[in-house]
Task: structure prediction
Amino acid sequence: MNLKDIPWPNLSHDLLKLGDDWTNFAQLDFPADREVIYSEGYKEAANLIASHLQADRMKIDLLIYPLVFLYRHHVELSLKSIIISGNKLLDRQNQNLHHHKIDVLWIEVKDIITEIWSDHSDDIDAVENIISQLASIDPGSFSFRYHEDKIGNSTISALKSLDINNFKIVMDSLSNFLGGVSDAISDYLDTNENFSP
Result:
């Protein structure tokens, strides 16, 4: 490769410049629920990486980190979205959501789900199992973003390998459940102003 062909920063570069082809413009000002858009975006990005790796495993050891982070972040944002809408439906105040502990978020989501619906114990147990597993490999959303924690310890030293196909299947199932809960709560909010469980 000719060195002249390698992209290099120059003073004419403008990160926010809009080009001539409007089809390349991503819209950031949709009025819809922002937490849902963010959550779905991370899931779609993870799905794209997983599909790519299932077709071509050459970079599997490189892309596993963003793959797991994107799925985990999707789960975190989904849980927070359910808490916000669920508390609105149940006329409760939101507690502190400015953390990344999905196991703690799940406790509140589980409480919301069981208050609205009482007949999903098997589903809830299965979801809790998946979230516990995800929290155990990445408790604070740092394990797949950084190779070391704040004091220099390896963030994933106990984990030696991960099956991307299985991981995607399990994440898809979790995402489907959380999406279903979110959609149902949204439907309740749209149709029942005075909801009572």
